[in-house]
Amino acid sequence: MDNQIVLKKSLFRSDAVQRLLAFGALILLFIVFSIASPNFFQFDNIVGILLATAVNGILALGVTFVIITAGIDLSIGTVMTLSAVMTGVFITFWHLPVPLGILGGLATGAIAGLINGSIIAKMKVPPFIATLGMLYIAKGLALVFSGLKPIYFNDTPEFNNMAMSSVLGAVIPGFDVPNAVLIMFGAAIVAGLILTKTVLGRYTFALGSNEEATRLSGVDVDRWKIAVYTLGGLFSGLAGVVIAARLNSAQPSLGQGYELDAIAAAVIGGTSLSGGEGTILGTVIGAFIISTLSNGLRILSVPQEWQTVVTGTIVILAVYLDIVRRQQQ
Amino acid sequence: MGDVILTMEGISKTFPGVRALDNVAFELQKGEVHALVGENGAGKSTLMKVLAGVYAKDAGRILYKGKEVEIPNPGAAQHLGISMIHQELNLMPHLTVAQNIFIGREPRAALSFVLDEKAINEKTQELLALLHLRLDPRTKVSALTVAKQQMVEIAKALSFNSEILIMDEPTAALTDAEIDELFRIIRQLREKGVGIVHISHRLEELKQISDRVTVMRDGRYVDTVRTGEVTIDRIISMMVGRTIYESSPEVPEKPSQEIVLEAKNLNRGNLIKNVSFNLKKGEILGFAGLVGSGRTEVARAVFGADRIESGEIFVLGKKAPIKSPTDAVRYGVAYLSEDRKRYGLTLKMDVEANIVLAAFQKFMGMLGWVNSSKTHTPADHFVKMLSIKTPSLQQKTSNLSGGNQQKVVIGKWLAANTNILIFDEPTRGIDVGAKSEIYRLLNDLAQQGKSIIMISSELPEILRMSHRIIVMCEGRITGELNSAEATQEKIMKFATQRAA
User: Fold this and answer.
1) B4-240 adopts what CATH topology?
2) Sequence-distant (≥ 6) Cβ neighbours of residue A317 within 8 angstroms
3) What CATH number has the domain bearing residue A214?
4) Of A302, A271, A258, A284, residue with least CA distance to A26
5) pLDDT at A13
6) Minimal CA–CA distance to B285: which of B466, B125, B418?
7) Where does the pLDDT of residue B361 fall: very low under 50, low under 70, confident under 90, or very high at 90 and above?
8) Could you report the per-residue pLDDT of B195-233, keeping only the tens digit for each?
9) Is the distance from CB of B51 to CB of B77 less than 8 angstroms?
């Protein structure tokens, strides 16, 4: 009899339920908006939602790792901006080849993450403070390196094409989904594999579940924590490259506020801010819920400011549902 | 027993304000079970944590297999073949049994950064089979009982093929059957030549399992003796530094017949089934049963910490709708959790703040301003009354020993003027000297007219302290015994009386 109880509990508590819940919510949104407006369920509009999710989705992937360790990264938005600006500096100012410029952008994000992680792990500064500091540093540096002006990629059209042309459309005529969307899904698959199949993923959960126990098990906790923040930074770098390519420019004043959207996506997707729990699929669904919501509300002519109010309500609701679910054990 | 595998000499360690270890020596042989005993704060755990790489020593040397070694971190200790099972469970609740056991040395697949989950589970299965443990390697640890989690810890430590295994109070949360199981495993390891350090407060246990005993007191080495050649009383006198020990039963005088608390037909899922009982003024009512029998759940229900599905609670004959701990405190009911550190104390705050915490409103001035001159006097009063050993009222409670932490919790509830005190495992993790002090304190409280419910897994403790004993099994009350008729055998019979 005891076993039965345990089994029932674990089924009810499993991560699958949370994902199902989030996925159900996404489907529900689709149904409601499709009924409310004929313009919603159109190919172009769906592609619009996918494209709008791309950047936030990539950011959310990185911050999911950080949150599972029971940490937080507030700097992802401005680090994304700094990475976009550095990509512009490398490609437009220094005339480096585009692939090298992209690598430079990715490296910028990773280095920012490395610094975050080192400050948190070695100097024992709480993640909230360390990454809040990095938020300002990256924001300032983005303005410094860009000279306060947007950097355009007009000499290198292939950079813009990388994100906005459609490899899929070339294979399946008419199915013109921009590459930026594929990049996000590719990044999500890689992130999912890292989280569930690799040592780094295992220690990400272990750190968030019980850091002291992990340390006492002989795991070099500091090193893995730095690795997690570096990975998070790398995803911010990727988001920076993608947003620069998409806009064909690096906008030095864009980016602040993105961190909150990304954290919201992870939380809606079932990542626990107290650590130890979270999935990549959940985060991706969470990111889609946010962009579907704002897209649908816009189609229904709800003003932008009210869309923001709704997003906030959804975040609270998602976490509340999760708490209710846990209490029922 | 065989050759000396480990020698520690002149080990010293100072924490801010405390000399935890002062020139301590320790020796361990191959294939030996070496008990390490001493009162709380004697330095047993600290000494072993130095050996396990958790703390760095300030002075002294460690000779391992004849060579001097430095052990800067837990990883280095494990690499040498030294594992430690810590007193507080050190598992990752979100990970599975297998993932916990192999944390830090996961089997890898073809690519070195990719995990081989299948191998992890298979290896764990083998390990569990070796120990005769019936557990699924894929179960999340959070779904296991405390006793099962303890077994996972043991399996984990054993999986290192360690040559030295340190166990810090491994039996504190285990039932007798589980302890027998553990001892079987320990003997198996001894046969294989593993050197085992066993830290325990249950001295009867040491007689059963250990070959030698090292006694520590106040951070100093006292002596090492062969277990077969000394009596328990002798060991105790070495621990406390005096020869007087009150082992006589301490059942206090008869309580009055006035009923202060009555529970009628409490129900909560499978955890509490139709539980009814009453508590009289000045009575100590023992709750016996195995771990997981529902005793703690009943206590939490009475205290309003968990919602009950049905049932009624009466305080002093009047119906008391207790829906939250706040209600309970208003009715004069206090609950002292077995997990002091999590539920009983705010560890980062000082002794004074903890003592006045539950009675804060009494000391609050206008607009919620805390009048510190008012809190000082009662805090001081309870520190003296309960003889809490603390350098000052401003000492953080995290720096106190287990026994003194427990006294601070008691002081907190006394300051809040509660008359019904529910103690959940009041002496768990507390050493002999402090234990008899806690017992004396409970007796004093009962004599002053406070009514006490004492949940305990230690049968001698229940028998020694209670006027009446209620026994639970699987959420039901299976028996009630008065102190005159109760024996360990009778209690165990009720405690294992499962529903048909």
Assistant:
1) Rossmann fold (3.40.50)
2) none
3) 1.10.3470
4) A284
5) 47
6) B466
7) low
8) 999 998 777 788 889 999 999 987 899 999 999 998 887
9) yes
Contact status of A32 with chain B (Cβ, < 8 Å):
no
Residue of A209, A212, A328 to mutate, testing the B interface (most B Cβ within 10 Å of its Cβ): A209
Domain assignment present for A4: no
- Count of domains for chain A: 1
- Which residues in chain B are contacts of A214 at CB distance < 8 A? 92, 103-104
Give domain status of residue A10, yes or no. no
Q: DSSP string covering B285-354, please?
A: EEEEE-TTSSHHHHHHHHTTSS--SEEEEEETTEE----SHHHHHHTTEEEE-S-IIIII--TTSBHHHH
The verdict on a CB contact (< 8 Å) between A219 and B113 is no
Contact A57, A286 (CB under 8 A): no
Range of the domain at A65: 19-29+38-327
CB contact under 8 A, B94 and A208: yes
Cα–Cα distance for residue pair B467/A113, rounded to 1 Å: 63
List CB contacts (< 8 A) between A277 and chain B: 94
Task: Look at A197 and B92 and tell me if their CB atoms are within 8 Å.
Answer: no
CATH 3.40.50.300 location in chain B: 4-240, 259-495
Q: Sheet containing B259-268: which strands, arranged edge to edge?
A: B272-280, B259-268, B310-315, B318-319
Question: N- to C-terminal Cα distance for chain B?
Answer: 48
Q: Specify the amino acid at residue A150.
A: P
B364 in Cβ contact with B371 (< 8 Å)? yes
Query: B-chain residues within 8 Å CB-CB of A216?
Result: 54, 74, 84, 86, 90
Look at residues B73, B28, B387 and name the one whose alpha carbon lies nearest to residue B211: B28
> Which residue is closest to A209 within chain B, CA to CA?
B92
Kindly state the average pLDDT of the residues A320-329: 70
Of A200, A205, A217, the CB nearest to B104: A217
Residue in A9, A13, A206 closest to B92 by CB:
A206
What token pair was written down for B479? 């028996």
> Encoding tokens for residue A95?
């005339």
Number of H helices, E strands in chain B: 17, 20
Pick A218's closest partner by Cβ from B75, B93, B113.
B75
Residue A262 is assigned to a structural domain of this protein: yes
Strand pairing class (B164-168; B4-15): unpaired
The reply to whether residue A6 touches residue B143, judged by beta carbons under 8 angstroms, is yes
Chain A interface disruption, residue of B95, B268, B271, most A CBs within 10 A: B95
CATH homologous superfamily of B259-495: P-loop containing nucleotide triphosphate hydrolases (3.40.50.300)
Q: Is the ipTM of this complex over 0.90?
A: no
Amino acid at B179: I
Chain B residue with Cα closest to A274: B94
Paired with B62 in beta bridges are: B8, B69
Residue A13 counted as domain residue: no
| Predicted pLDDT of residue B429 | 67
Query: Does residue B435 have a pLDDT over 80?
Result: no
pLDDT in tens, B99-155: 999 998 888 888 888 999 999 999 999 988 887 778 899 999 988 877 788 788 878
Residue found by looking up tokens 């054993």 in the block: B158
Q: How far apart are CA B152 and CA B149, in angstroms?
A: 5
Q: Tokens at residue B329, please?
A: 């405190």
